[in-house]
């Protein structure tokens, strides 16, 4: 070896191979020479006859990927000059079968053509082809056509000006506001690459609890500099806006959406933004929610507020994404019903470029929620989906929870609004009500941690969200396997094992955390168990408000005898869920107050079933550890150790959750822990003391 | 090339070469084959006949370093078996010339012997030898002897339980408390390596505004797991403690240091800690300071508080580091005098294992301060030094400020307490008053940013601090050059240019920020200029309290006609500083209220001199950019671009500072901006509006 080779060898050992920074875009050399040769037959050249930025990105990404996978440089040329074995990137606005961002990939006689109707379509096609190679599929007769089912596929970052992230568990914000616009962190581009590779085309860079700063000229320059990095990847930038900004930074006396001066201020602001960022996406708004000001402060409604902003953005083709996450501080009311009650009456009153963004469930990103009853009930108002990728209620960065099953569960729920088969997916992809505007957002789980997501396997949630946003018919299993193969190991048996681990992880979490439809038993920062919590700054921010444990039983009665929230669903849904005998067990305590001794469909009483879930859930984490240990030989050592360590923490905390729940609920049920489970070794007092430690200032 | 070579090549390009993670421990191959061969003659084998952890670390670090630099594997063997060309690591407790942690390196006939009195001494010797190679010095006749002048060389981390860092500008905390003790981030070890390589042997992992959590059994396990990582690198762990912990977690009714139950609680707690961490370093305490509770809450004094803790730690050889950073919320008093007034009367009253930690200057880590008058005035009480590495008042992570000149300026200040030459360094290294205990601490500038310190060149501050803590006689220039050569480039001309850039950076910053002895003109978060700030929750937390601008002039009169803080210094110092004609210009406004029209030793009036400094300071940032541009060819591209971007931000902000000061002070001085400088293009109102943006919620 000459010194250069030695150097590289040493360098590569000094530099951590798998710190997770490369995500699923690793492009490590394909070890099987035959497979490399087979792929290489169709990958001698990349042909692109354009210098438009997104197409240039597409060609360069393809070059980078192929070079890594095949181990040789692939030139980009303007014309194939009759040579076969090339990959041709081409835009054809007349292409049938595709929508604006779709792509077609065809391999004919070892020449691959990637066609899009737009430049972005070509870029997505490139990543699809690379994914094919990364997952070692044949490309010999490749014929792929795919178009996104939803137009706006976005990440929402709850990132603050001081670089903290509300509900972030993977370091600080990716955006270095103090350095922008002068210094562009190379990571911004890596972020854009990763998103483009899974079809995400929009990003809201700041927290919905928004700072006025972002609308000042000073910060808009910073935002514009990020937009410049994202643009070649087909990604538009959006801002969360602080509704009273006309007062806080505009010097006006009011932010009343019907005030002409306020309207003018927003119009001027929109014009200013689009001068800097011609393809600016629009505004995301949290208003009259959890203390955030909004139009109701002036006696106006959500439509008044949204429409004012919409009119300011409309000339520039910008959109308003108005959040339906609203509820009053009323301990007597049922928070479940709040969003529906406030928004349904406004159906049809919103401007055309407004979309109402609804969380998947009626409360707040719980480990399991029934679908929000708003879906399907606003046929004249585009409704967008808001999922949460960051694990606010899913164990932060120490619990393994693969979220695609959560997303799928909601998307495949049947609203029955247009008869059987009227799934939530069909609401939000616009097919049910012919929405002209469709959107889906994931609250990002990214941060400045080197591996982006804290828990290495949480990258799969970002990945699966993007892929589902593109095509919600993909299965959670297929996406898990895809991600594992691209990211962790191409060895099929181990890939299958890890896929299995991912797939079962959410149910295991639910079992030890919130089984049978329990919800919100967390401490203030949403870290530790606190089902006994009964005091708070708001009556609806206590645990007991949600679980309603008493000497009789457990659960929130939302039937006609209770809050009657079930009335917000279609009769077909109501019929099934309002009867405790037919209500699916996972939703049981969401809708019913069930007696401790009531026998469930499992043959066990409620109390015994609860215990069974808490215990088996906690035990399953041990099984997950064994399963993970079995793939050690096929996983990078640093990644392996990282996950293994987190699983140990998860085990410890799963037991904590189990003990907190059973010991607390036992005070109401007065029942023994059923065999074969053993009484927790610690007392409720000890569990509480441990919880208190994590709340000490 | 075979595929492995191709793989490595590709891998190394995908993996960022110089993201700064490796700090100064890069060990890239020495390009000059002749030099490699010359070094290799004395580096065929590493000989170590021990399995003790610190010695094992020493051998492995030597192996890693040599392997990188020389490009070949170097075996570690138990005996040289008569072969020459080996490096022998050996401990000799009887070694003369050395103190406990010192080392001797001798090369005789191509066999190098690294001797320490202790295992740690050998480790430090190993890093010294590697440094020699990294800076390309001859080792043919090597004969090096070095012992640290100060015993406890520490970093203080102001890190909180939620991973935020008080005054941190390089990401979140390195310590992942939610993952500990189960998952050990590989970064903890890298942190220990870096510290050991520069002689740091202690680390306080949590904020002086301390959480009680760290003293709970739950958190002590986490702390112990970090201690286990640090131990093989000769680093002890310390904790900041919350003085009322006996109440908050002990369930006692009081934290009175004279209460027997309280004493017993601390004794028990110390015993509990040492059971988990046998080499635990001790406690750092901020008490009765900025709202932190302390012994004065019970009518006791600082000695009472410190001694109680000291007695609990003494059986285990732990120490108490008690901070002297105290001052009252009194707008009439002079904060300058507070620490001296409170602590000097306590001299001689502290237990033997207490050291009082004093900030370098009397106020709070300003860009330039005179030395704290406490140094030298407590001969019976060991005084430790507290420097700040994180750039709280030095422009966060976007301003280049090499801090060794700040440290040296203080260390070389003459207190005159034992006659001429009684420098601050001689106080804190114990030589002046024969302290049995010596310590120096740097408030860390590290965080989870990949490059550890945010600004790539701020690594030099960590490096220089450690090296000066070991030997305060080293020059700022030598250390800068050492760091640059090890970290950025071995090309001598470029290394010299960057060294020069580092050396002048602090004075440039002072010029545009706080020239002639100005202080504390910052906004609340210490980011932007706010010399006009006159309202605050405390009267002594305003800018006008410090600069005292009025129609007559500027500056804080601390002479006999003013607060008479100068009386806290020895007569020799007083004589020079109390006379504005002989007071050094850098300290002028620290001690004198000077008329705007007063002619200074520069030949300019105060007003003209101020303007000259503000303008030339801001202009110098432009010159720094040019200088940096000139070394481009010898610097890694990512690092180059990173620094270049930050220098642009610094330029912008330097102009901001300049304009804020001159426009604001002009309202008092009523003088024109002197030629050749041009009036700022913006108004004071515009400057204020920009500042307000950075204070918007």
Automatic annotation (TrEMBL), chains A, B:
Belongs to the glycosyl hydrolase 67 family. It comes from Larkinella humicola. Residues 133-452 form the Glycosyl hydrolase family 67 catalytic domain. It comes from the Bacteria. The keyword Transport does not apply. One of its GO terms (cellular component) is extracellular region. This is Xylan alpha-1,2-glucuronidase. GO terms for biological process: glucuronoxylan catabolic process. It catalyses: Hydrolysis of (1->2)-alpha-D-(4-O-methyl)glucuronosyl links in the main chain of hardwood xylans.
